[in-house]
Amino acid sequence: MTEAFLSIRGIRKIYGQVTAVKNVTMDIAEGEFMTFLGPSGSGKSTTLYILAGFQDPTEGDILLKGRSLLSTPSHKRSIGMVFQRYTLFPHLTVGENVAFPLRVRRTPQAEIAERVKAALRLVRLEGFEDRKPALMSGGQQQRVALARALVYNPPVLLMDEPLSALDKKLREEIQFEIRRIHQETGVTILYVTHDQEEALRLSDRIAVFSHGEIDQIGSGQELYANPATHFVAGFIGDSNFIDAQVIGRREGKARLALPGGTIVDGVPMHAGSAGGTKASLLLRPERLSLSRAQIDAGLAVTISDITFLGNNVEVSTRTASGDSLSVRLPFGHEAISHLARGDQAWLGFEANSAHAFA
Ligand SMILES: Nc1ncnc2c1ncn2[C@@H]1O[C@H](COP(=O)(O)OP(=O)(O)OP(=O)(O)O)[C@@H](O)[C@H]1O
Questions:
Q1: 66, 152, 283 from 334: Cα distances, Å
Q2: How many domains does the chain have?
Q3: Which of 92, 94, 270, 332 sits a CA distance of 20 to 30 A from 19?
Q4: What is the pLDDT of residues 49-87, one digit of tens each?
Q5: What residue's CA is closest to ligand 1, atom 8?
Q6: Of 171, 201, 204, residue with least CA distance to 189
Q7: CATH number of the domain residue 191 falls in
Q8: What is the distance, to the nearest Å, from the Cα of residue 293 to the centroid of all Cα atoms in its chain?
Q9: Do 227 and 244 have their domain in common?
Q10: What would the mean pLDDT of 6-17 be, rounded to a whole number?
């Protein structure tokens, strides 16, 4: 087996009564952009702090190029960090802030000036050396923090919700910058967020955290197309869930009875495929069709609302048994011109585009 660049092995962290991280194991390749995605309290930050050396794990190990980092203190781990609350030194200028990690490492003066300049160029803040952080916008300050984290060329960069204090437009702008910097420098990035859109935009792979464990690791496309658990399915992309009865199984596919008696065959079945007759069926809003005419293996619904969202139109529907299902159609889709609130209609979907969870 080839040795992983960065390896997180069986990490567990207990604070008194609270198990913050139950069991986290993953390998990260050199140059990879790995995001920890999950709801608040799922253990993402704790895992990152253990990597940074701010916390010791209760169990497990962290290896960089095959060598354990646990006995190396935080400041000697050669890991850059940008945190939401890891703010700049307010009394220092931008240049002095960025130079700080180099001074700690006793880099020669001439080299410091050059490296600070290059780091500020990387984050597009050339010429801001003498500015005080207080006189800069939130986005500019986070770019200075990024320059400071990267100035000594650490092989690994940790980022914990670095953009959560910024407004949406600025956030997207800096996401774009982070992607560019990742490509230009080739630094390995571990990034924490609870925002799925941000995770999808930035990452090579995403580790979905839930209750101190990883439910699934994969590219955004893999997680969307093939979610391993109900939780991942609900966390990546938009989703409708309805209850179903499993009435047959074959080769990882299920035959399901839906409320109202509709039978669908050939739905991919995930998680705990052994036994049990109850399942939850995931239907993506963008994979549903809508028509006035009856659809084979479709669901009879009533339109409860139609919302225009720019490029898309979201149609809210309700089945006779009370399930709410939303359908996303492209703006101008001909189905919409024939439908209004209160109308009866049929929802259709390809069995292959749905997912059943035991
Ligand atoms: N120092 C601590 N002492 C006690 N409990 C802690 C400590 N740090 C974290 N926890 C608990 O561990 C669990 C995981 O927290 P963690 O911050 O890692 O989650 P997270 O996924 O990063 O969430 P958030 O996005 O809210 O930061 C939470 O229940 C949290 O309350």
A1: 58, 57, 21
A2: 2
A3: 270
A4: 999 999 999 999 999 999 999 999 988 888 999 987 657
A5: 46
A6: 204
A7: 3.40.50.300
A8: 39
A9: no
A10: 96
40 lines ligand 1 (CB under 6 A): yes
Buried b (16+ CB within 10 A) or exposed e, 112-125: beebbeebbebbeb
Task: Verify that 150 and 210 share a domain, yes or no.
Answer: yes
- Regarding whether 248 and 177 lie in a shared domain, the answer is no
CA proximity to 202, closest of 174, 244, 168, 233: 174
Closest of 271, 260, 272, 278 to residue 325, by C-alpha = 260
Tell me the best of 8, 12, 14, 15 to mutate to test the pocket of ligand 1, counting ligand atoms within 8 Å of each CB and taking the most.
Answer: 15
d(CA 235, CA 316): 20
Give nearest CA residue, ligand 1 atom 20: 41
Segment 274-332, tens digit of pLDDT? 556 889 999 999 999 999 888 888 999 999 999 988 889 999 999 988 999 999 999 88
**From start to end of 124-232, where are the E strands?**
156-160, 188-193, 205-210, 213-218
For the segment 153-158, the average pLDDT, to the nearest whole number, is 93
ipTM score: 0.95
CA distance linking residue 145 with residue 111, whole number of Å: 20
At position 337, the amino acid (one-letter code) is S
Ligand 1 pocket member 193 (CB < 6 A): no
Query: For ligand 1, what atom is nearest to the CA of residue 209?
Result: 21
Domain that residue 99 falls in: 6-231
Atom number, ligand 1, closest to the C-alpha of residue 36: 21
pTM of the model: 0.88
20 CB within 6 A, ligand 1: yes
Task: Please enumerate in sequence order all residues whose Cβ is within 8 A of that of 204, keeping only pairs 6 or more positions apart, or say none.
Answer: 32, 33, 34, 219
Do residues 120 and 157 both lie within one domain? yes
Residue 121 domain-assigned? Answer: yes
Q: Are residues 51 and 67 in the same domain?
A: yes
The H-or-E segment that residue 300 falls in is: strand 299-309
